[in-house]
Design a protein that fits this description.
Shape: globular
CATH class of the largest domain: Alpha Beta
Largest sheet: 8 strands, mixed
Radius of gyration: 18 Å
Strand content: 35-45%
Number of domains: 2
Number of strands: 16
Number of helices: 5
CATH topology of the largest domain: 2,3-Dihydroxybiphenyl 1,2-Dioxygenase, domain 1
CATH architecture of the largest domain: Roll
Helix content: 10-25%
Order of helices and strands: EHEEEHEHEEEEHEEEHEEEE
CATH superfamily of the largest domain: 2,3-Dihydroxybiphenyl 1,2-Dioxygenase, domain 1
Distance between the termini: 28 Å
Structural class: mainly beta
């Protein structure tokens, strides 16, 4: 569905907070993100329909793990898994004032769904992947307070450097993530058959938009979709030590089928991820 260009409608103070991944059980996700990549517990809960647990990485970026629970009370996650299988579920952006943010969203031509302001500490709304494109986007006004974990410098835990989202058109992605949600342009580059633009917010969250420029992995991954989350990029001391990681030049890949539907790109040197060479996802 086409939306208007939200030029001039930027939501001041929006920040990319976390990426959520879903599986049949948290026990299928926790060994990878906690034990192998070193994410530490930040927060969690069990509202009707699902369990959520957040892990924070060295740089402060968060992965939220979701599993279905009490689905007779709320079956949205059950339906997602039945339709798509395990994998990335949503991107969350915190906003300082949800009603004002939704005014900008609607003026820009998007249609928020599941708006819920019943909890004064957590007000939320969602944008459908048919508009975003290709991934659920959660907007949340949060007044919750969590104690951030302290990472042991000797633990050699990972940093979640960015989330990569493949889009058929970077312009469509920039309408939402740059011109409405306020992401600032960072580095740009490319690889075989694709180009990328990175967006940055005030916190640690980084979003890299990948657009196919010809035949190749990104084009194949998208297929007939307008968008599809492509990978999570981590920097850690010993990428080769992560089970299922396969060397590919200067980086290591964990393919989606080996990681509950979510591809990982692992490197030991963050500068590799800023490269415009074929190794630079």
């Amino acid at each position: 569905m086409a939306v208007a260009d939200p030029a001039g409608l930027v939501i001041a103070g929006a920040d990319f907070d976390h990426v959520a991944v879903a599986a049949e059980s948290e026990t299928l996700l926790e060994p990878r993100y906690a034990q192998q990549l070193g994410g530490l517990p930040l927060a969690g809960g069990q509202p009707p329909g699902f369990l959520w647990a957040q892990l924070e990485f060295v740089n402060g970026m968060v992965v939220e793990m979701l599993e279905p629970r009490r689905v007779e009370e709320n079956d949205f996650l059950r339906r997602f898994l039945d339709r798509n299988g395990a994998g990335p579920h949503h991107l969350t952006f915190k906003v300082p004032d949800l009603p004002r943010a939704l005014e900008a969203v609607e003026t820009a031509g998007y249609h928020p769904v599941a708006v819920d302001d019943s909890d004064p500490d957590w007000k939320e709304a969602f944008l459908h992947p048919s508009e975003v494109p290709g991934v659920v986007v959660q907007l949340a006004e949060s007044h919750e307070r969590h104690v951030h974990p302290r990472h042991d410098p000797s633990s050699r835990a990972a940093s979640l450097t960015y989330v990569a989202h493949a889009v058929r058109s970077i312009e469509d992605g920039l309408k939402l993530f740059e011109r409405l949600l306020g992401g600032a342009r960072g580095p740009e580059g490319g690889g075989p058959g694709f180009r990328w633009v990175e967006l940055r917010w005030s916190g640690p969250g980084r979003l890299r938009l990948l657009e196919p420029t010809g035949p190749g992995d990104v084009d194949t991954w998208l297929g007939d979709r307008a968008g599809r989350l492509h990978h999570l990029a981590f920097v850690l001391a010993e990428p080769a030590s992560v089970p299922d990681a396969v060397a590919d030049g200067l980086l290591w890949l964990v393919e989606p089928e080996a990681n509950q539907g979510t591809r990982l790109v692992l490197v030991a040197d963050a500068s590799i991820l800023a490269s415009s060479t074929p190794a630079g996802w």
